[in-house]
Amino acid sequence: MVIKCIALGNSNEAYIEERLTDGVNIIFSDDNNKGKTLVMQGMMYAMGNQPIFPKGFNYRANYFYCKVEIDKKEIEFLRRDSSFVVKKQERYYTFDSVTELKYFLVEEHIFDIPQIIKEDRMVVADLNLFYEIFFIGQDKRNPSNTINSGYNNKKDFVSMLCSMNGYPLVDVEETSAENKQKIQQLKADIIATKKLLKLIKKSPDVSGYVDKYGDSAQFSDFRIKVRKLHNDIAEYKKKRSLEFNRKAKLEALVQELNSLNREIEQGNVVCAECGSDKIIYKSKGLSFEVSNAYIRKQVMHSIAYQISQKDDIIREYSYQLQRLQDELKESLKEVPVELHRILLFSEMILSEIDYDNKLRKLREQLEELQANDKNISDSEKEAKQKCKKMKEDIVFRMNELYREVDPYGRTFFDDIFTKRDETFSGSEEQEYYYSRILAINDYFKHKYPLLIDSYRSGEVSTQKEDIMIKNFISRKKQVIITSTLKEEEYNAQKYDQYRGNANVIDYSNNESSKLLQPHYVGRLEAIVESFGVMFREEG
Asked: Whose CB has fewer CB within 10 Å in the chain, the N or C terminal residue?
């Protein structure tokens, strides 16, 4: 993958960067606030990354464009707020969310986004998590966690690397001696609590069943399992209903556009107030002039793709519903009739059994501690070993790269991320990110460029920087790094020595804190309208 062109702006001001090559690109300036970060973040934002723009920049009011080349085929991204249009082989695809875009990129094999285990199920990794494999932004850096931490964390990042390596991450680390001691204590507490368990027998019917099964883990497990199945079934029904509604709206839109097509063929449709014959279809932040036959055809194709996507999702939800319903039926077959009846009385029983809440909490704690002691299949053991070996190889390479840059440095990496309370001083944080992004690249030999905004932060010395740049050049792939030079470095034309091996782009002439300029607007307008999107919306 090679970044070919980046553009951003609105109908008043814009900026376009198309001087990038497929080798090393050094974007620099003699001062901060010259637009380097805006261009880097705009490039990633166009492709679905989480916004991390400089304070005061109203990104929601701007268009963002990025053209990339993958396997000698160009793919173009256009984004405004949460709306996207992707142009692939002269086909347009519109999306109303980052999630829709993500699944398109996977289904069309544009990006190899791996699946990770999240909340006990396999999901496609979020784009901002995936992009951190090869993109390091200037802000929100945190060596002990992911840059866009929140829903995603360092465990998810490592899980993603394991999936890229051919195995999903299996969280089966050995229980420590302290945990084993806690397990024994909890088991003793459960036995004691069971002995203290007393029933208030309001109903002879309930009492009989509780006497027989109330002290049994069988009933507790059965009740928890059935309740979870019911909740899961309800959740999938809700999701499927939402997708049905969205599909119905899209199908209604197709009918409207087909109707519009017939009306245009039979006669002109014009606005009664202004007489304009332009007809606009709005999709959140983007507008398309569907009175243009070619654009209308492209919009129709994109909507047809979305409908097909909804059909796939509905089928998947229906399959999951059927599976859960079958599992519920089988569960009810496997237990005694008495347990069915206890289930009906479960809420009453819970309110009437002393120590029941305590017993439940003790069991939950025990299950959590025993999770790592459960039997692990041979394939899971193999996955664990392979993931462990992968981490060791990446960390070993990180230390090698770090030693090349800083032979006398006191830092030693023992994991892909640092410990929470571990801090870096001076240039060490940048050396960490440099080592990590290169080590991951060297291990996977992935097809994506290496992108680091403000790669010299922390006062990386000239000698260290020279080693870094030579290492970037030796990778024979696209690299885009940004740098702010001191006055004496800029006057000495620091980066001229790399010309011929690197593409050096000077942003110093850009107006401070004013990257966007009116003279780029015409070219941005042509880019936006090439997607069939109206650039200047008529009020």
From this structure: C
